[in-house]
Amino acid sequence: MHSFDWDDLQAFLAVVRAGRLTVAARKLGVDHSTLSRRIVALERAIGQTLFDRRANGYALTVEGERLVPDAEAMENLAVRIGARQDDPAQGLTGSVRIGTPEAWGTYFLAAQLQALAQRHPELEVELVANPRMFSLSRREADIAISMTRPEQGRLIARRLNDYSLGVYASADYLARHGPLTQRQQLQGQRWVGYIEDLMWSPELDYLAEISPAIRPQVRISNVISQVQAVKAGVGMGVLPCFLARREPGLIRVLPQEIALSRCYWLVTHADARDLLRVQVVADFIVDRLAALGEEFWGAGPAEVPPATA
Fold first, then answer.
1. Would you say 230 and 239 are in contact if contact means Cβ atoms under 8 Å apart?
2. What family does the Swiss-Prot or TrEMBL record give for this protein (predicted)?
3. pTM, two decimal places
């Protein structure tokens, strides 16, 4: 193997994670032809073909797969070295990407970013509010908000807060289907729920907790759209109370009998523990959430042991 440029290795990881040369080039802020030259230079230096160039993107070869863990190990070392150069007295710079569930990111975190910008005007924040899991080891995010505590990987988890969910329907739906006073009546109703194979977390399987006999007739991949469907009278649905209470057209059904609960976790990678900007943003999220009060979010944040490797 000949010597190679560290920039070429960064280019390799960017293409691995994006899957397409043009997308990776945008993320790196370079021209796609420049990125292509870096990949070719790395392949020449290593003496191996790392990607199969296909019409729909770049696919790793066997040799490319073998290089990924070593490249990520070098990247992690570079991150730790760079973290030592952070100087709080000079203000935070750089970028922090936060991956969150869509409702949490949209209805909580997005509104808090102004306060973060006032404290650290040079800091760049990327909020990815999508219904999915985020891989911190693959640098899909620096901070992830999850509905489950990770059990594998070099990850550090902090329990943020518990929150309640309930069964909701619109006034129009209840007027058409009569008053619902018993749990047994729920089985004969029309339901809005998740698409099973698109549930990004097992914690989203709410309806099974109410009754195994309930099957949603309308399935939607994200909770924000579910709220609008339930509000329009399409059917009943299980919704987070912090989200449903923002919609005056929704009515909670059987609140004394049916009360589900879930929690959110803030997750960072162990390699980022010394990265000041990640620490500061994580602490900011914890502090802002605690400041909102238990009447909105439930229990406050609490430290828990890190996930085991």
1. yes
2. Belongs to the LysR transcriptional regulatory family.
3. 0.70
Residue 188's pLDDT band, with cuts at 50, 70 and 90, is confident
How many other CB atoms are there within 10 angstroms of residue 184's CB atom?
9
**Cα separation of 52 and 58, whole Å?**
6
Judged against a pLDDT cut of 60, whether residue 309 lies above it is answered with: no
Q: What is the pLDDT of residue 25?
A: 85
Domains of the chain: 6-83 (1.10.10.10), 94-161+263-303 (3.40.190.10), 163-261 (3.40.190.10)
For 171-181, the pLDDT digits (tens) are: 999 999 978 99
Cβ(164)–Cβ(249) below 8 Å:
no
Q: Taken in order 100, 148, 103, 107, is the CA torsion positive or negative?
A: negative
Per-residue pLDDT for 139 more than 90?
Answer: no
Q: What is the pLDDT of residues 253-276, one digit of tens each?
A: 999 999 999 999 999 988 776 688
Output the CA–CA distances (angstroms, integers) from residue 215 to 35, 165, 229, in the order listed.
49, 18, 16
Owner of token pair 């230079």: 41
- Residue-wise pLDDT for 72-108, tens only, equals 778 777 766 665 555 554 457 788 999 999 999 998 9
Are the CB atoms for 65 and 38 separated by under 8 Å?
A: no
Pair 227, 269: CB distance under 8 Å: no
What is the distance, to the nearest Å, from the Cα of residue 75 to the centroid of all Cα atoms in its chain?
Answer: 22
The Cα 28–Cα 192 span in angstroms is 41
* Segment 112-119 long-range contacts (CB within 8 Å, at least 24 positions apart): 112/284, 112/285, 112/288, 115/284, 115/288, 116/281, 116/284, 119/284
pLDDT tens profile 144-155: 999 998 887 788
Strands 124-129 and 95-100: parallel
From the centroid of its chain, how far is CA 142?
10
